[in-house]
Design a protein that fits this description.
The strands form 6 sheets. Strands 1-2-3-4-5-6-7-12 form an 8-stranded parallel beta barrel, surrounded by 6 helices. The chain has an 8-stranded parallel β-barrel with strand order 21-22-23-24-25-26-27-33, surrounded by 5 helices. A hairpin with a 5-residue loop joins strand 16 and strand 17. It folds into 4 domains: 272 residues, Alpha-Beta Barrel (TIM Barrel), CATH 3.20.20.70; 72 residues, no CATH class; 102 residues; 195 residues, Alpha-Beta Barrel (TIM Barrel). The chain is α/β, with parallel strands linked by helices and 747 residues long.
Length: 747
């Protein structure tokens, strides 16, 4: 399909963390900007405008013939979602060009209440595969912002679905897959999913293997990634189908915004000019003087994966070379401050003078306006000829317009006073401004209560799971395991209703042995737990394993992302699908979305407190389970701590990160599918608080085992399983543990 894609001019999309940044972006050639409002944006600490300022910003951008996309890309709690309609309404009416969303509940609500409002899937949705992009397009999403980690072939596969593809081209890279990070949240309550990330990945850590430090004094910034620079790969990204090139940086200055925009404007234009494409090293130096945290990398779009992506040494935030910056800035062209319009003036004696004006809009429509003045009088002395009339009407002053063309039709005999001509010109300009904004503005949508329901995307499947005795008061006890040893240990305990078997860490031999055990009488239902993300290189191997597990009586799949849910639903239509906590259901709208998508159950998000969890479970449209014990995954990354420190050896090591306070965060290397998971420093334990979270709508209690050895696993199960099966709170055998967000929640 690549050759069949319609050829369009690529969009340069710049960040607007403030109104000054917005103006700098447009001045230096951005086609569109993305900006947050006073709430629900992934940069809560940017200089975000209030409602009135953002409405005026929309008018300013539209008068410039550009677009503004609004970020609504955080996860919303139940009570917040109730106010979404009123929050969005003024921006919808002011003509916001699209909204970026992460929350599936927000997506569902917007598609229902603002059906003609374009929706872009934020990179926070962790779209890494064409399966997810295709599903989102079918649900009304017009554009997908790809995960930063994707290679060119993966970008091409998403573009081939027909959805608009936006990709990051320049700026900061998170260590973690966007949307799959809880580290800042678990450490200090500042959630990246709520726009408040504290950036703990930028701090130094010792890397340990079996209590031995394997990092030196000067290479401890192992999670601090260099910024992205894709200048060398813009032609290949265009060929792959990227139609919007996104600059990161809503927390950066107008100078940074304008400078980076100017550079990328030049090279995107060069790509489309047909001339030889070559990057001037002076432009690279300029970008590094604007901002440099320790170097730049091209790995994201090129697919290069090596240890040089991390800064490792303490970043040296040196003062920029002001002379170089000024010289380069003075050489950049800026867009004209006024927008071109065309017009026609009819000035004939005995007829009213008439002027028409028109302006081509960014979406291809034409705004037209006209004004009529008094009847043209016969000149007694000096008639106004074509030249004189053009001179009178060329004075557009401080209006946003400049003449591209003004045609004058006159008999050369007429006259009107200068004041009347000026009034006619001003009236026509005002009418054109009004018409431009009228074309951009929208009529108010239906209020939420009267909006029609969203049609289900898929019929809900009925899940059949044999009950081995672990159901008490309607709640099952499930065990999730990462290793083969943990799987064997779990099988020795009676009363467990299901086992989630992680496919990421099993060798082929261990997998075959697990299949044999699944076929034995008395084995609890086994669900295949997929890797944290879905990448092209994984799919063939995963498909083989899932088919083998299906033949062995697999009960279903546990998926982490919408990509995985769509892929499993398409390839294994009869398989029951449950959502991991990372497929977030902060609110009941998101739960309804997943139910309509065909999922049978969801795991409750780790960032909701007890009150919010109980509200989420009240009248839930999708049964849910709670993880009540386990080391929560704090980060999921395409990077590898082992590779960064010592190089890849493919041995699937278990390492640890020690921070400045002495806390240790275990790191498991998932070498089969090439990813890392960083776990919280202490295990979550809520089993002794069962009376506080046990509620109708809670279908299961999960005990999650990740880094525990057999002895540690048995100590937990021996202390709690019997009480859980009897419907009682379980004693806490741990000296070090955390309540997670059950008490505090997140902002």
């Amino acid at each position: 399909m690549t050759g069949e894609r319609e050829k369009k001019r690529a969009e340069l999309l710049a960040p607007a963390g403030s109104l000054d940044c917005l103006k700098a972006a447009l001045r230096y050639g951005a086609d569109a900007v993305y900006m947050g409002g006073p709430r629900f944006g992934a940069r809560a600490y940017a200089d975000n405008p209030d409602t009135g300022e953002l409405v005026r910003a929309l008018d300013y951008v539209h008068m410039k013939g550009k677009k503004l996309y609004m970020t609504v890309n955080t996860l919303l709690k139940e009570e917040e979602l109730e106010g979404l309609y009123a929050y969005l309404l003024p921006f919808y009416e002011a003509g916001v060009d699209a909204v970026l969303v992460q929350d599936l509940g927000v997506l569902r609500r917007i598609r229902r209440e603002f059906p003609d409002l374009p929706v872009h899937a934020s990179t926070q949705m962790t779209v890494t595969d064409a399966a997810g992009a295709r599903a989102l397009a079918e649900l009304g999403v017009s554009r997908v912002v790809a995960a930063r980690e994707l290679t060119l072939p993966e970008l091409r596969a998403i573009a081939d679905t027909g959805v608009e593809l936006e990709a990051f081209a320049h700026g900061a890279i998170c260590y973690c897959y966007s949307g799959q990070c809880l580290l800042s949240s678990l450490i200090g309550g500042r959630s990246g999913n709520r726009g408040r990330c504290a950036g703990p990945c930028r701090l130094p850590y010792d890397v340990l293997e079996e209590d031995r430090v394997i990092t030196g004094r000067n290479d401890r910034y192992v999670l601090n990634l260099k910024d992205m620079d894709t200048l060398s790969y813009l032609p290949q990204m265009l060929e792959a189908g990227v139609m919007s090139f996104k600059i990161e940086g809503r927390m950066k200055s107008p100078r940074y915004t304008g400078g980076v925009t100017a550079v990328y404007r030049h090279y995107l234009d060069l790509c489309e000019s047909g001339e030889e494409y070559r990057v001037d090293e002076a432009d690279r130096r300029f970008l590094r003087e604007l901002f440099d945290r320790g170097g730049y990398t091209e790995y994201v779009s090129s697919g290069l994966r090596d240890h040089m992506v991390a800064v490792r040494e303490k970043p040296d935030f040196r003062a920029p070379d002001e002379k170089l910056l000024r010289e380069r800035e003075e050489s950049f062209p800026t867009l004209p401050s006024k927008e071109n319009i065309k017009g026609k003036l009819r000035f004939c004696t005995g007829e009213p003078v008439i002027i028409t004006m028109e302006r081509l809009m960014a979406d291809g429509r034409t705004a037209r306006a006209w004004a009529q003045g008094p009847v043209v009088q016969e000149a007694k002395n000096r008639p106004l000829d074509e030249k004189a009339l053009k001179e009178r009407f060329s004075r557009l002053g401080d209006t946003p317009f400049a003449w591209e063309e003004l045609l004058v039709e006159t008999d050369g005999r007429g006259f009107l006073p200068v004041g009347e001509l000026n009034e006619l010109r001003r009236g026509a300009v005002q009418e054109l401004e009004t018409e431009i904004l009228r074309l951009c503005h929208r009529e108010a949508a239906l209020p939420a209560a009267a909006a029609p329901a969203l049609a289900p995307a898929a019929a809900k499947k009925t899940e059949t799971v044999k009950d081995t005795g672990g159901r008490t008061a309607g709640t099952q006890v499930r065990i999730a395991v990462d290793t083969f040893a943990q799987f064997k240990t779990a099988l020795t305990y009676r009363g467990v209703s299901a086992i989630y078997l992680n496919l990421s860490y099993l060798t082929d031999r261990q997998f075959d042995e697990a299949l044999s055990m699944m076929r034995e009488a008395g084995c609890p239902p086994v669900f295949a737990a997929l890797p944290p993300v879905l990448r092209q290189r994984m799919k063939a191997d995963l498909e083989t394993r899932l088919r083998a597990m299906t033949e062995a009586g697999m009960a279903g799949c546990l998926v982490h992302t919408l990509d995985q849910a769509a892929w499993v639903r398409h390839g294994f239509p009869d398989v029951s699908i449950r959502a991991e906590a990372s497929l977030y259901t902060y609110n009941k709208e998101a739960a309804s979305f997943l139910a309509e998508f065909g999922l049978t159950e969801a795991s409750l998000p780790a960032e909701l407190n007890g009150r919010e969890l109980r509200r989420r479970l009240t009248d839930t449209p999708l049964p849910a389970e709670i993880t009540a014990y386990g080391y929560l995954p704090a980060m999921v990354s395409a990077q590898c701590v082992q590779r960064t420190v010592s190089g890849c050896d493919g041995r699937g090591r278990l390492l640890a990160l020690k921070d400045r306070t002495g806390r240790r965060f275990a790191v498991r290397c998932g070498c089969r599918y090439c990813f890392n998971v960083v776990y919280n420093s202490a295990p979550l334990y809520l089993l002794d608080l069962r009376e506080e979270w046990q509620k109708e709508g809670l279908a299961g209690i999960r005990l999650q085992f990740t880094i525990e050895n057999e002895r540690e696993m048995r100590r937990i199960l021996d202390s709690c399983l019997e009480d859980l099966l009897r419907g009682l709170p379980a004693a806490n055998p741990l000296k070090e543990f955390t309540r997670g967000h059950f008490r505090r929640g997140v902002e």
